[in-house]
UniProtKB/TrEMBL annotation:
Domain HTH cro/C1-type: 25-79
UniProt name for this protein: XRE family transcriptional regulator
Compositional bias per record (Low complexity), positions renumbered to this chain: 1-18
CDD domains in alphabetical order: HTH_XRE
Superkingdom of the organism of origin: Bacteria
Region Disordered, residue ranges: 1-20
InterPro entries linked to this entry: Cro/C1-type_HTH, Lambda_DNA-bd_dom_sf, MLTR_LBD
One Pfam entry name: MLTR_LBD
Length: 277
């Protein structure tokens, strides 16, 4: 398992040209479907003051920008953009993942995903670049061509590319729809040309010839949408869980996500332990 150094994130953004902080805050408020009065109550302010900020009649303090961003659940990178638009310096640094100051973080992620073996687990950034993966993921990627693995593997390309894992996914239409919906939600929160380009690329991949969602053999009751994938002649079923860091103070850390795949049935769990043994 390797932690890869990362450059600028695929979600890198800048304040929209010609827009002050007021219109940006209004857009975030409307996206969250929160009224000016409700936001004011949350932020210990007044609806009149929120209205003045949004229309540009009042310049919010740095503390107010951060307070409103917190109550609107604005991503950390976008909080920097709001501060810049309001005339303040960015508050949150963006530290390269290979920086010595993040040694403890990298070590913790390594221990976490290695401890999850034999079940698959990986770490991705905001652009779905794989920055770490365990042996369970390596098993699922067996047979994927090297051109999809370098220079930096991307989880969406690896999964949906017709030469990647897609031909072995037995519920590809369902799983593809789930992944594309996940990307759409992320794009709605981040003004990222790179992420939108990735979405358009993977959404345009052709489905493997004859692809259709197979029905599970025998009785199967899943508590979440499973990933059903063939490995060495067997159909393995997983449900995934995504974890992020609580209250991150760094853009890089805020945009990391740890995805773990839990066996969705006893047969899959037994097979993984047998292979790992």
């Amino acid at each position: 398992m390797t932690i890869l150094a990362t450059g600028p994130s695929a979600s890198a953004t800048a304040p929209a040209e010609g827009k002050g902080v007021g219109p940006l805050l209004r857009a975030w408020r409307e996206r969250c479907r929160v009224s000016q009065l409700e936001l004011a109550l949350r932020a210990d302010s007044s609806a009149r003051h929120i209205s003045f900020i949004e229309t540009g009649r009042s310049r919010p303090s740095e503390e107010m920008v951060l307070r409103l961003a917190e109550h609107l659940d604005v991503p950390v990178r976008e909080r920097n953009s709001l501060l810049l638009a309001a005339g303040y310096a960015p508050r949150y640094p963006e530290t390269p993942l290979d920086d010595p100051s993040l040694d403890a973080l990298r070590d913790g992620m390594e221990r976490l995903i290695q401890g999850y073996e034999p079940y698959p687990a990986l770490v991705v950034d905001a652009g779905y670049t794989v920055v770490a993966a365990n042996r369970g993921i390596a098993m699922l990627l067996e047979g994927v061509p090297e051109k999809l693995m370098s220079p930096a593997p991307n989880a969406m390309r690896l999964t949906l590319h017709p030469e990647g894992m897609a031909p072995r996914i037995r519920n590809l239409r369902e799983w593809r729809g789930h992944l594309l919906s996940q990307m759409e939600r992320q794009i709605a929160l981040q003004r990222s040309d790179q992420l939108r380009a990735l979405y358009e690329e993977v959404a345009a991949y052709p489905l493997p010839e004859g692809a259709q969602d197979d029905e599970p053999a025998g009785p199967a009751v899943y508590f979440a949408l499973p990933l059903r994938i063939e490995h060495d002649g067997r159909i393995l079923s997983f449900v995934s869980s995504i974890s992020t860091f609580n209250t991150p103070m760094d853009v890089t850390v805020a945009e990391l996500a740890i995805e773990t795949f839990l066996p969705a049935d006893p047969a899959t769990a037994k097979y993984l332990h047998t292979v790992a043994g």
